[in-house]
Amino acid sequence: MTIKKLPLEVIKLIAAGEVINSLAAVVRELAENSLDAKAHKIVVSIYPQLWKVQVADNGEGIKKDDLLVCTQPHTTSKIANKEDLCHIKTLGFRGEGLHSIAQLAHLHIASRTENDCGYEIFSDGNHITVINPIAIALGTIITVENLFHNIPLRRQGNPPFKKQIKQIQTIIGQLSLCHPHVTWQLFVDDKLTLYINGNNQTKKILPQLLKTIKYTDLTSQQIILNTPQENNKSFLDLVLGLPDRISRPRPDWVKIGLNGRVIKSPELESIIYSSFHRTLGRDRFPVIFLHLQTSPQQIDWNLHPAKAEVYLHNLEFWQQQIKQAIEDIFKITDNNINNNFQNQRVEKILQVAENKPIYQIEQKTTQNEESSGLGLIQLEVIAQSRNTYIVAEHSQGMWLIEQHIAHERILYEQLQNNWQLVSLEQPIILENLLPKQIEQLINLQLEIDTFGEDLWAIRKIPQILAHRNDNQEALIELSWGGNVDDAMVAVACRSAIRNGTKLTLSEMQNIVNQWKITRNPHTCPHGRPIYLALDESSLYRFFRRHWVLGKSHGLND
Ligand code: ADP
Ligand code: MG
What we know:
single chain; Heat Shock Protein 90; Ribosomal Protein S5, domain 2; formyl-coa transferase, domain 3; eight-stranded mixed β-sheet; 19 helices; 24 strands; about 30% helix; elongated; binds adenosine-5'-diphosphate; binds magnesium ion
């Protein structure tokens, strides 16, 4: 037998029992059990009107003897003693899930392990009726019927069925993101309503959950880290929507997974928001799923009955790593240039319907990167188009960079690094300021005093504005509100080279060199894309260059 009753001292250490208050809570408990049983196929069927849920999996199954005890309180195969509480690797460990469900519903479990036939049990809460041998494939099918038949009030406390189905879809979606190797099906009244198959890639799951997201809008990365104070590795998997392609009006797609389960973590979420600051437009939120898989010792799951909140030890360390990972993903390097989403985008623009890549463009090795110092690609400016676009070439294609916003990004980051105010020899005189404008200029730490009736003298201004002849207008603009950061954006925008300005090759090269090493070269501080990559492989296909030796010369047929 592998399922055992927990010792009393362990029971006392475990947070309040599982709360089964909805169909969704049942689905969560059962699906998590299936995952713990190493299933890679999970089929959830619900019949809301009947308050019925069935979860079938192809996991390890439950042994005959274990079937008899699995619905008793505090019985689990996942931990055995106090020490195990510090090493929890499974989603369940309290041995309460099946017991709680059995108290509230009619439960039927059919299961088969390897080298045995299948068995089934029925439970009505208090006793288990007979074990019958049955024919069933390897795995477990658990059916929960008449949920809350004995507590009608709990049924009434639930939202309409439509909303309950949504909750269930959310739970399955969240689990699927954390377990991309699993195929999921959700049937509602025998109708397939959700099918998720990620092929072991989280990046493939997101577009299945949110139809407005395309695979090519996403980028992903896995970072392997040394676990703090331990001699093992942790993994940080990041899938994020490219900020110049997708964003959301609400923070509904900022999701954090921790060791296999989506959790709420205001501390980690705030780090994500700050990493996207000035990368997305105003009031826009990123699409991001971040999954941290670390040693169980870093986590205390015991805080919340549904384990939705946790204590994460070494919080600052993890925050720092997440920040760094997001920053790195934005950098333009030889390593990430090839999976650049823009290739697909350009192909769409050019309407290339070819899907056979013909040749592989030579890939620069990491050694080459070192010669460029910062591990960034070489971009050589070759021309300016329409006095607006910088045309730059690199080993894998050609880029168009919009001069104004590239420069704006450079200036904005320079201002962030160094918001310097300088004293002016000649003050700038402003007139007819409203009290709130004066207050705003003071908030921005500009030196301001009265100069006569309805006149004010500004004696200290941001350095970058000092030698501009439009600095009066700039100050008025700043006086209309916003914090220092808004002021930086406004100043950067005003000071950046305008489109329509003719530039020399070396001036443009200078801009490109500075721009490509900015922290976030993809978008300007307002969230607009800065460059368009015309990848050589897309151009190659567009011009059908592979035809030259083939069809067009009639050499083969
Ligand atoms: P816990 O998950 O905390 O261990 P549960 O009450 O949810 O407690 O489950 C009790 C035990 O039943 C589990 O420890 C596991 O051994 C077994 N079990 C439940 N569901 C499954 C399943 N789908 N496949 C295999 N074993 C299962
Ligand atoms: Mg469980």
